[in-house]
Each structure stands twice: as C-alpha cells, then as structure tokens.
C-alpha cells in the first residue's frame, strides 16, 4: 500500500488564484494539490492526507460544504483556511454566521501572501504563539504586565500617546486604543475561570479596582514595523474557546443593539485589519490585533481577516 | 503614567460639553436628568475615546431619553464617536446630529485633519454622500475626504 504524504489542498475555481496560492504554499515544502470545485475536492481528498485545506469563500457557502468539511476532517485536516477576494467582502457576515470557518483571509495580493504564509506555517509547525510572526525583523516590542485592573485605562492612554509620538495618525491611535482596551478588559474580567468553569470576575464592576496577582496578571506587547501596528494581549487561563470566538465575531446584535456577551471581541474585530486568536486550552489565550498603517482609510477593505489557532497537544 | 482622562461634563450655553473617555466610569444614563425643557444638547468635540462599556451606557442614555420624551441633539461629534455610531446602529437612537468631525487629507502636502461639518447646512450634499469641500489649513490646496462617504456618513441615514 503506498504511503500517503501530508499535503495541502486548494479548492478554488479560478486558475490564476490556484497558481498564486500554489506558489505561496509550495514554499512550505508540502505537496500542494488543486481542485476546481467541491465535488472534485471531495473525490480528491479520499486519496490525500491534507494538513490544511484552502478554500474559496463562495464555495464555503455551498450546500456541499458540510460533506466536504467532514471528509477533510476524516482525512486528518487540521484547519480550513478560507480566501475571500476583496469583491466578496460583503460575504463576511454570512461566512461568520456559519460558525465553521476558523481562518478567514480577506485581503488581496500582496497582503494575502503574507497572511497565507504565516497562517500556513503556524498550522503546519504547531507553533502558534507570538506577535513576532506578523512583524518584520528588528521591530521593537514594548512589553507591560498588568498587576491592577485600573492600569488598563492608564496603559491604553500611554499606548495612544506613544503611537502618536511615533508619527502615526490620530485614526490609528484611536483604533489601537479601542482594540487594546477591549482585549485587556476581556483578559482581566472574562478570562479568569474556576475549576467549574465559572467566570468569577465577569460581573465585577469594572470601575472598581481589582488586584491581579499570579495567574490573573495580563501581559500586553505592542510594536509597529511601518506595515502593521500590532497589539498582543495574553492571559494565563486559556478559557476562550473556538466556538465562543466565532459566535462573538458573527454577532449581529452587536451591530443592531450593542448588547450581549462578546461585544468587546466584536468591536476589536471591527476596529482592526486582522485579528488572531492563539489558544492553548486551560493554559493560555493570546489575542493579536493588526492595524494596517500603510494604507489610508480609502484604500482599506471594509472587512477584516481573522484566524483561530488551537495548539495541538 | 498618563491617564486617558475620565469623562467630564460642563454646562456651556444651552449645551452640556462632554470631554475625555466614555467608559465604565462615565454614568451617561444619569444625564437625562439634566435635560432642559425636554431637550438635551450634547457637545461632543472633546470625546477622545469610547469603549464597549461606554457604548452600552450611551445606548441606555438614548433609551432613557426616548422613554422620557427628551429630544437629544448631538453637536460637534468627535471621530471616535462617529465610528461607534456607524458600527452600532443602536447608538444613534432618535438623536439629531447638528455637526460632526470628519477626516480629510491633503494630496498636496500630506496633512491629515479632522474637520467640522455642519450636518444641517450640508444636509442635501451629505444625503448624496458628497463631502463638503475643505481647504488645507497648511498649504491652501483642496483636501480630499479621507474615508468612504458611504461608510462614514451612514450614521446620518437613520
């Protein structure tokens, strides 16, 4: 019986996109197989062991997708990465509503190449943590540990001032403030769980001071490489799970009424260009927000990319 | 270490002037008690930041005003608040917007500026998603609107 080699499978109807993605992912050293549609992909997958499936956004909404997902999972696929051309950015709410797409990349080339390569390498190597993976070599990263809840407001203001003093626009500083505040608030108040899985700090009045000792301490790192302003927030509970994230990102009632759990995560997603969740269940949650500082608002897409990575044990 | 500044409220003329951060400490919903003759006019030029907890409070304030029959007018709405008004429909409530700040950029010298737009005077142009022309305060050239009009002006459509 022939030995099956781990590979990557691309399902995309456009021949040019197939070639571009094949070239980008070929650098991983894995065999890259290509299918034009889900039917072909489903037939092909029976003979493959794809670690990663890369699929066109329009195919994700097909009725055949459930069958394809099941087949890919049965063959050992670790993740399904979905590509969405800029013309289809308005499809993001539908894709989010499915609750199954863990990695959505919305940007066209050349940003797509960066996002695709990093995402693929993280999945293949099972090395998911660290904002460094998204920044250029030599980028100066500031690191701060929160030991009191009240530090959040101080820290957010300080980051904003430093961003402005480094020549970034008021818009970038404003987006960074919102993202940092929401991610820190989430890590301080929502992340802590007890043995029964109870989020015992969620309902505490956030205007009151709270000591963050030991495991409650929250780490923030941020830096800018003139492409991205990156903000990374880490807690030591690892209580945020994939389904909760996908539900929060998809929440329509955040837009309609501004209510409900997960509003902070949803606002952070809508205020950055790429939101990355790195999860080690029970041990660590790391959220990274990337704000594109290269392009003015008129050249930015209305949608944002996101990735949910779960560390394999 | 600097703080982002708790929200302050000052009465100036017929308006309450809000400045600083709208967050968990803002207690905005209590402001309806300061309405005069069924009107609550808020000057928002000094708002520097609003987070999800501030948004919730803002929505509660709008709902309380609506329930009490108070007409809310928003003046000189700062950009961070405009972004939330655009992201979360419920933040708009029944308030009327008299004026707001919007991003402009100068192609000639590269300057970026947040400029005030009179929403009443420019109502017709804004409904056609046409930003009013602005002159660069540095070089005098015509500035370009620095966002997508259909995205930035969507809060005016309610």
Quickly describe the structure:
By secondary structure, chain A is an alpha/beta fold. Chain A has helices at residues 15-26, 38-45, 57-60, 65-74, 92-98, 111-125, 151-165, 170-190, 242-250, 252-256, 263-270; strands at residues 6-11, 31-35, 49-56, 79-83, 103-105, 142-146, 218-224, 228-235, 274-280, 284-292, 305-310. Chain B has 158 residues and is α/β, with parallel strands linked by helices.
Question: What does this entry look like structurally?
Answer:
- The complex is a heterodimer of chains A (313) and B (158).
- With 313 residues, chain A is of the alpha/beta class.
- Chain A folds into 2 domains: 6-125, Response regulator (Rossmann fold); 131-310, Histidine kinase-like ATPase, C-terminal domain (Heat Shock Protein 90, 2-Layer Sandwich), CATH 3.30.565.10.
- Helices cover 36% and strands 22% of the residues of chain A.
- Chain A contains 11 helices and 11 strands.
- Chain A has helices at 15-26, 38-45, 57-60, 65-74, 92-98, 111-125, 151-165, 170-190, 242-250, 252-256, 263-270, and strands at 6-11, 31-35, 49-56, 79-83, 103-105, 142-146, 218-224, 228-235, 274-280, 284-292, 305-310.
- Chain A has an 11-stranded mixed beta sheet with strand order 2-1-3-4-5-11-9-10-8-7-6, sandwiched between helices.
- In chain A, helix 5 (92-98) links the parallel strand 4 (79-83) and strand 5 (103-105).
- The longest helix of chain A is centred in the middle third of the chain and has 21 residues, at 170-190.
- Chain B has 158 residues and is of the alpha/beta class.
- A 5-stranded mixed beta sheet of chain B has the order 1-2-3-4-5, sandwiched between helices. A 4-stranded antiparallel beta sheet of chain B has the order 7-6-9-8, with no helix packed on it.
- In chain B, strand 6 (99-106) and strand 7 form a beta hairpin.
- Chain B starts with 7 loop residues before the first strand and ends in a 6-residue tail after the last helix.
- The chains are: A alpha/beta (313), B alpha/beta (158).
- Chain A binds chain B through residues 153-158, 160-161, 169-171, 174, 177-178, 181-182, 185, 205-207, 254-259, 263-264, 267, 270-271, 296-298, 302, and chain B through 1-5, 21, 23-25, 49-53, 55-56, 59, 79-80, 83, 87-91, 103, 105, 112, 114, 145-148, 151.
């Amino acid at each position: 019986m022939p030995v099956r080699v781990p590979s990557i499978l691309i399902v995309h109807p456009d021949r040019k996109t197939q070639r571009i993605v094949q070239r980008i992912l070929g650098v991983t050293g894995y065999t890259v197989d290509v299918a034009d549609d889900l039917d072909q992909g489903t037939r092909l997958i029976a003979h493959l062991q794809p670690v990663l499936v890369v699929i066109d956004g329009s195919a994700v909404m097909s009725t055949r997708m459930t069958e394809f997902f099941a087949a890919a999972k049965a063959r050992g696929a670790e993740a399904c990465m979905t590509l969405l051309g800029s013309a289809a950015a308005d499809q993001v709410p539908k894709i989010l509503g499915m609750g199954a797409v863990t990695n959505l990349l919305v940007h066209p080339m050349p940003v797509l190449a960066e996002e695709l390569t990093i995402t693929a390498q993280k999945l293949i190597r099972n090395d998911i943590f660290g904002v460094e993976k998204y920044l250029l070599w030599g980028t100066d990263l500031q690191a701060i540990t929160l030991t009191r809840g009240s530090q959040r407001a101080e820290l957010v203001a300080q980051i904003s001032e430093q961003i402005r003093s480094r020549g970034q626009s008021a818009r970038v500083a404003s987006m960074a403030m919102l993202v940092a505040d929401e991610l820190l608030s989430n890590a301080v108040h929502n992340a802590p769980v007890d043995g029964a899985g109870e989020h015992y700090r969620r309902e505490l009045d956030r205007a009151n001071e709270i000591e963050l000792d030991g495991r409650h301490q929250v780490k923030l790192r941020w830096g800018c490489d003139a492409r991205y302003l990156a903000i990374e927030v880490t807690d030591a509970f690892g209580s945020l799970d994939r389904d909760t994230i996908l539900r929060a990102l998809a929440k329509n009632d955040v837009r309609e009424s501004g209510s409900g759990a997960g509003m902070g995560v949803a606002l952070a997603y809508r205020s950055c260009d790429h939101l990355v969740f790195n999860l080690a269940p029970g041990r660590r949650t790391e959220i990274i927000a990337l704000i594109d500082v290269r392009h003015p608002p008129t050249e930015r897409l209305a949608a944002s990319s996101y990735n949910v990575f779960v560390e394999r044990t | 270490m600097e703080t982002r500044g708790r929200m302050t409220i000052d009465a100036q003329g017929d308006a309450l002037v809000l400045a600083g951060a709208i967050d968990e400490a803002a207690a905005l919903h209590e402001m309806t008690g300061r309405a005069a003759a069924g009107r609550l006019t808020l000057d928002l030029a000094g708002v520097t930041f609003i987070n999800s907890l501030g948004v919730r409070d803002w929505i509660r304030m709008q709902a309380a005003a609506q329930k009490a029959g108070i007409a809310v007018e928003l003046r000189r709405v700062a950009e961070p608040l405009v972004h939330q008004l655009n992201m979360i429909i419920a933040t708009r409530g029944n308030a009327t917007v008299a004026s707001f700040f919007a991003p402009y950029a100068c192609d000639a010298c590269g300057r970026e500026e947040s400029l005030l737009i009179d929403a009443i005077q420019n109502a017709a142009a804004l409904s056609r998603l046409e930003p009013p022309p602005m002159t660069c305060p540095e070089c005098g050239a015509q500035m370009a609107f620095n966002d997508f009009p259909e995205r930035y002006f969507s809060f005016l459509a309610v």
